[in-house]
Amino acid sequence: MSDNITPLASLSLTHVYYNPNDPLSHLCAFLALVPQALCVVYATLLWSTREAEVLLMFLGQLTCELINFVLKRLIKEERPKHVISTGGKGYGMPSSHAQFAVFWAVALGLFLMVRHRPPRSHIKKGQMQNEKAEGEEEGPALVDVPRRYKEGGLRAVNAHLEAYSHTPWSWAQRAVMSLAAGVVAVLVAWSRIYLGYHTPKQVLAGSAAGAVSAVAWFAVTYMMRETGLLAWGLEFPVARWLRIRDLVVEEDLCQAGWEKWEERRILALSKLKEKSK
Predict the structure, then answer these.
(1) Are the CB atoms for 140 and 129 separated by under 8 Å?
(2) What 3-state class would DSSP assign to 51?
(3) pLDDT tens readout for residues 217-243
(4) Short-list 87, 100, 113, CA closest to 37
(5) Where is the Phosphatidic acid phosphatase type 2/haloperoxidase domain (predicted)?
(6) What is the pLDDT of residues 248-265, one digit of tens each?
(7) Which of 67, 100, 230, 261 is 20 to 30 A (C-alpha) from 208?
(8) Which of 73-82, 193-202, 223-232 has the lowest mean pLDDT?
């Protein structure tokens, strides 16, 4: 009876070999799951924001994966021998993990540093004030909290913190976020070498392919915007049914939603005051 039992297979998409006695190897095993985690992030952002820019970046990411699929079958370079002996499958040149992570990091950096044009400041309605209009050269900062407390107590501190939390990212903040994405990509690429799934040459080739793909895709999407092709596509019934919009390039979506909520909240409060009179 035991001869009829079908041997179980492993889902290679999430199956990672690592040394359980090595903490770095354990960390690298988690880094190997970054591409899958990013796909979840893409899907979540696309569903929650319906932003054309998120859709375009995700399509570029999938195109990058397709390029990697084709390159591996054209080059046909094997993985390191010890990985093949333990069950590693597929060709190794170029590294798909490195290519995926570097594409994401470069594409995100290009969006934050080149394409994204957030408003200089948020002019709040009602009780909210634009602190920059009061003569300050910069927007609200955490270091100003003690001064605000001395000037107006807890109410002034609360208004200051609220303004700070909804201030658009500065150029420096966007640069830091882009750099952080680059560090994550480097760690993912390095983990493939440390775990022995790829040679340094395969990882470098994957990183280069990812960077070139990201720049090329950015150029393609730039032309789509400049020629009106994206605007034309957003007029399609399917895009309108799915509520696809193109706001994140020039708008802080968090703040835009907050201002709509504030308008509704202030209106509701004013109606309650009228009824109580």
Answers:
(1) no
(2) strand
(3) 999 999 998 898 988 888 888 888 988
(4) 100
(5) 54-218
(6) 777 766 666 666 777 788
(7) 230
(8) 73-82
Rounded CA gap, 113 and 118, in Å? 11
CB 207 within 8 A of CB 102: yes
Residue from 183, 185, 194, 184 nearest 17 by CA: 194
User: Rounded to the nearest 5 degrees, what angle is found at the Cα of 181, between the Cα atoms of 180 and 186?
Assistant: 95
Q: Which long-range contacts (CB under 8 A, 24 or more apart) does 8-11 make?
A: 10/87
DSSP 2: G
What tokens does 54 get? 């998120």
CA distances to 72, 104, 158, 164, 216 from 145, in Å: 55, 36, 9, 10, 44
Q: Judge whether 210 and 38 are in contact, CB under 8 Å.
A: no
* CA–CA separation, 26 and 194 (whole Å): 11
* Phi and psi torsions of 245, nearest 5°: -135, 170
| Total residues found in the chain within this entry | 277
Residue type, 219: A
